[in-house]
Amino acid sequence: MTITATQPVLKAQPLGHQWPTLDPFLFCAHHDDSYPAGDGRMGVQAVEFEGRQMGSDFSRKDGWSMYHGDSVPGFPGHPHRGFETVTLVRKGLIDHADSLGAAARFGRGDVQWLTAGQGVVHSEMFPLLDTEAPNPLELFQIWLNLPAASKMVAPHFTMFWDERIPRLVHTDGNGARTTVTVVAGALEGADPALAPPPESWAAKDASDLAIWTLLLEPGATWTLPAARGQGTRRMLYFFAGEQLRIGNQQADAHAALEIVAGQDWQLSNPGSTPVECLLLQGQPLNEPVAQYGPFVMNTQQEIMQALQDYRRTQFGGWPWPQQDPVHGSAPRRFARYPGCSEDELPPAAAAIGDNPQAGLDAAL
């Protein structure tokens, strides 16, 4: 017997820097930094450091943070084991480097998906390329758990270029549009999602996993389809805009909204500015979680083993001359995969013959 819910929202929680998540997701952070003009070396001018706890600056003073960066903001080399990071960049650029030998400069709609598995070390730096104007950066970083059987798989690095990510554009009867960007999961009317890493929970049909972003123009209405799987859980993060209406309920403040996943719900934007949301859904793993900082396993014994393994092996070592590498001053996007000597370029860049050697040659 199917019971039809009358209220779509099961729980509402306010949004901070780190957003609440549901199994199989572990973590979701929204970084929205209004960085100033760069110093010509892709860093922040030293005069801006006053009043900050350098090395661990999460202050958002003047609208931005240095995080663990010294001169270039970001996160120098640090380890992970037992889960995946999915990084969606909405504005600005990120320079990635890792212990696999992979490197990338990506952003402006691109997504990086990194399976840490048995262990990887990576850095994520935010180069400030513009020396004459501000360097805004906005991104989501999502941590997706790995099943116990996959926690010790080989690490895997991949890029989803913005030009290849499927989108559904729906125009309602009033001519207002809703755009859904499909990073993962099936959505009728959109092209099939790009293939997630092979050992990801997202690669399993039973996971019913979805990562979407939604943009509703003022006055737009769109029906969010029911999840496919019984037991799937769904979180809708309303993070931009004035109001969001879901079925017969209205959110007047930005919030993490756990939604009844097994039914269609009409979403509408009654406000005068665009509404934006992030949707994360999936079948729970329903496995114990033991976490110590950047290590996520199933037991404390496995955490202790992770610490010992990292101290002993450094997860393969660090092949870069510094802990916070950046990839030159050219505002180009590229990825170099482990074991490859040539860069992969976004489709548009490849079409105009961008130099495939320029990125890493400037960093080494």
Beta strand count: 24
Main sheet: which strands, in order across? 1-19-16-21-14-13-12
Instruction: Examine the secondary-structure arrangement and name the CATH architecture.
Output: Sandwich
Name the helix and strand elements from N-terminus to C-terminus, one letter apiece: EEEEEEEEEEEEEEEEEEEEEEEHEHH
Mean pLDDT: 94
Query: Major sheet, described briefly?
Result: 7 strands, antiparallel
Q: At the third CATH level, what is the topology name? A: Jelly Rolls
Count of discrete structural domains: 1
Tell me about this structure.
- The longest helix has 14 residues, at 300-313.
- A hairpin with a 4-residue loop joins strand 6 (93-98) and strand 7.
- The chain starts with 8 loop residues before the first strand and ends with a helix.
- The chain has a seven-stranded antiparallel β-sheet with strand order 1-19-16-21-14-13-12, with no helix packed on it.
- The chain has helices spanning 300-313, 347-351, 358-363, and strands at 9-14, 18-19, 25-35, 74-80, 83-91, 93-98, 103-107, 111-115, 120-125, 135-145, 156-160, 167-171, 177-184, 210-216, 221-224, 233-240, 244-246, 249-251, 255-259, 265-268, 275-282, 290-292, 295-297, 334-336.
- Residues 352-364 have low confidence and may be disordered.
- With 364 residues, it is mainly β.
- It has a single domain, classed as Jelly Rolls, CATH 2.60.120.
- It is globular and about 55 Å long.
